[in-house]
């Protein structure tokens, strides 16, 4: 089978799964009805040189634009009141990367939430935007035609956006939107090179409100809250490529046991344990040693501190861990994890996370779990 065809097929599968996954949190979170905003913003900024060896890719300031479809909540569900009536949206973004030969452009599609940070009675909103989705980079690494692009190794990449935003209603229909944001795009070592792109931009534009011009916010939430421990068991699988570009793909597996203590409706914290098995480690051993590896040689066992920001059924995990057992010295003894999880039912949870070792991405983890 043609190797390039296999990679393309795998990328399309990831795209389908990721878009399907990202669309789920929007369903049932906010009933859009006829109250929504269409917003367009322009972007201007630069690529952050987070590694010295990618500075040659930065040729100038970048610019672009986005269009967003924004659902507004009014407190029909109790969780909307706890989060000061957040907005949920879907964004299409285009960025010119100021290096048409080696980087080209970036197109991204991603769902996001705007969490209000200031008081509800203010005429303006200070929002924190959190978005996760997919990005398409038009000029990734190519051994023959683009071998100087050591930041992005594939067209299809994971995409994360964090933005501090400002919104002010100029009239009953028109809204001024502005913000300062950070964007990251990489493929989680599915294809190398994979240093990733980190982008900082300022944005400004206008939005138009359709439907009800003056929303009435409900304030009748009486749902009780309980501090309790929540055990969660998650199984994950991932794919990664070693440093050599266009090399074979290796499967990795993991099993995680997390014990969360719910601090309040928005935050939970607790310890965790995990077991990992990475076939890429076997290849590293074959390159560096003279004896055959065993399952113990390529297995890991670690302890970690787990934090989750909870947004109704969606949670954003951040984890810091230490390997209690790890024979292969590559990447050190510390590991970290960020991502998104979604409660499909009261007990079943889906998982997309990125395993990293400090600033070095290892691989994306796709999984499913059970909440006791």
In short:
With 372 residues, this protein is mostly beta strands.
Give a structural overview.
Strand 10 and strand 11 (267-278) form a beta hairpin. This protein is mainly beta. It folds into two domains: 3-210, Porin (Beta Barrel), CATH 2.40.160; 229-371, Porin, CATH 2.40.160. It starts with a helix and ends with a strand. It has three helices and 16 strands. The protein is 10% helix and 53% strand. The strands form two sheets. It has an eight-stranded antiparallel β-barrel with strand order 1-2-3-4-5-6-7-8. Strands 9-10-11-12-13-14-15-16 form an eight-stranded antiparallel barrel. The model is unreliable at 1-33 (pLDDT under 50).
- Total beta-strand segments: 16
Query: What is the CATH architecture assignment of the largest domain?
Result: Beta Barrel
Q: Using the alpha-carbon principal axes, give the shape.
A: flat
Kindly report how far apart the N and C termini lie.
Answer: 44 Å
Any idea of the CATH topology of the largest domain? Porin
The side-by-side strand order for the widest beta sheet comes to 1-2-3-4-5-6-7-8
Helical proportion, percent range: under 10%
Number of domains: 2
Largest sheet report: 8 strands, antiparallel, barrel
Mean pLDDT reading: 86
Q: Could you give the order of the helices and strands?
A: HEEHEEEEEEEEEHEEEEE
Classification by helices and strands: mainly beta
Number of helices: 3
Low-pLDDT ranges: 1-33
Strand residue percentage: over 45%
Mind telling me the CATH class of the largest domain? Mainly Beta
Q: Which value, in Å, is the CA radius of gyration?
A: 22 Å
